[in-house]
Design a protein that fits this description.
Main location: cytoplasm
Bound molecules: zinc ion
Organism: Streptomyces caatingaensis
GO biological process, one term: L-histidine catabolic process to glutamate and formamide
Pathway: Amino-acid degradation; L-histidine degradation into L-glutamate; N-formimidoyl-L-glutamate from L-histidine: step 3/3
Radius of gyration: 20 Å
Shape: globular
Catalytic activity: 4-imidazolone-5-propanoate + H2O = N-formimidoyl-L-glutamate
Number of helices: 14
Helix content: 25-40%
Distance between the termini: 21 Å
Length: about 400
């Protein structure tokens, strides 16, 4: 196998406290040796072993590839008009999802796949090397299963979200739709998915319905994640913790009991500031969660309705500016935090044995991701040891 050393890294984020200083395991004037698809060695440039190839980082920063643990990328159409109206004063509700459902059902497999590939590539160019994505715009047995089949051809982290909203055909029979989601649709979808998810929210699914969806998925061998407490208070976060979900996502409206539950359980709180940005909604309070000892992940929620950004650096900047996170915390949450939300230990860190997913910034420090918002700082990306940009 070919070995490559990246040397003269001005500031290296390892996310391994045994390798460097602080929670980010920071190293100065560092080198990383990549062997095949894995990290083989991390240390000071002067001590780097001989390798086949070398890349001189020239004092710039390197960090783990971003782990975006929440997106919705199998869809057709867009919702420009809805966004435009919202920015002109109209509010956001869960019902807009049905617009995308109609367009997605009408699209061919090839069209859906081309869209997914386009957004995965867009994310990769911005440093995202692990990306979860969901179904949820099909809402029929056929359309949910095909969304997951298409997703599974391009990412390992695939989530069954038949319970995104009640399908239009079941508008007068939501419990009938839950029976479909937990029965025939689950049977068709489970072979293509790792995770089961539900939008537990007023206008989508209530606590009892959400519990039924998650328990059915768990019984089928899937692991749970939950869209919880985005638009208002509700049972989603505590249900996620009770059922041992890997992640409760959004967490915008939390009671003290919700925060306590997250702090005592193993469920990661995944914050998605692109949604608050794009719906002009109040920010989730990351500081409150971090101070309570909750593990926080930061992701894009990339979807055509409420957060049409694939940029993790943008979300880092929002989290620092408006959610009370320090730059170090935001970078950790977008890398190691995302990995925790996906229960992965092979990504989100740069240490011997980890997958060689690396981002080279055109900046001396990871702090610049928040310090220089909107600037395309990602100058190099390695995924599984292969330089892809
Ligand atoms: Zn979402």
């Amino acid at each position: 196998m070919t070995t490559t050393a990246i040397t003269h890294i001005g500031s290296l984020v390892t996310n391994d406290t045994s390798l460097g200083t602080g929670p980010l395991g920071l190293l100065r004037d560092a080198a990383v040796v990549v062997d095949g698809d894995r990290v083989a060695w991390v240390g000071g440039t002067s001590k780097a072993p001989a390798t086949d190839n070398a890349v001189d980082a020239g004092g710039r920063a390197v960090l783990p590839g971003f782990v975006d643990s929440h997106s919705h990328l199998v869809f057709a159409g867009d919702r420009t008009d809805e966004f435009n109206a919202r920015m002109s004063g109209r509010g956001y509700s869960a019902g807009g999802i049905r617009t995308t459902v109609a367009a997605t059902r009408a699209a061919s497999d090839a069209e859906l796949e081309a869209g997914l590939v386009r957004y995965l590539d867009e994310a990769l160019r911005q440093g995202t090397t692990t990306l979860e994505t969901k179904s949820g715009y099909g809402l029929s047995v056929h359309d949910e299963a095909r969304a997951l089949r298409i997703a599974a051809a391009h990412t390992d982290e695939v989530t069954y979200l038949g319970a995104h909203v009640v399908a239009p055909e079941y508008a007068d029979d939501p419990d009938g739709y839950v029976a479909l989601v937990t029965g025939e649709m689950l049977d068709a979808c489970a072979p293509h998915a790792r995770w089961v998810d539900v939008f537990c929210e007023k206008g989508a699914f209530d606590g009892d319905q959400s519990r039924a969806v998650l328990e059915a998925g768990l019984a089928k061998g899937l692991s749970a994640r939950v869209h919880a407490n985005q638009l208002g208070h509700g049972p989603g976060v505590r249900l996620a913790v009770e059922l041992g979900a890997a992640s409760a996502d959004h967490c915008t409206h939390l009671t003290d009991a919700d925060v306590d539950a997250l702090a005592q359980g193993s469920t990661v709180a995944t914050l998605l500031p692109g949604a608050e940005f794009s719906t002009r909604a109040p920010w989730p309070d990351a500081r409150r969660l971090l101070d309570a000892g909750v593990t926080v992940a930061l992701s894009t929620d990339c979807n055509p309705g409420s957060s049409f950004t694939s940029s993790v650096p943008f979300c880092i900047a929002l989290a620092v500016r408006d959610m009370g996170m320090t730059p170090d915390e935001a970078v950790w949450s977008a890398t190691a935090g995302g990995a925790a939300a996906l229960r992965r230990t092979d990504v989100g860190r740069i240490a011997p044995g980890a997958r060689a997913d690396l981002v080279l910034l055109d900046a001396p420090s990871h702090v610049h991701l928040a310090y220089r918002p909107g600037v395309p700082l990602v100058a190099g990306v390695w995924k599984r040891g292969v330089r892809v940009r």
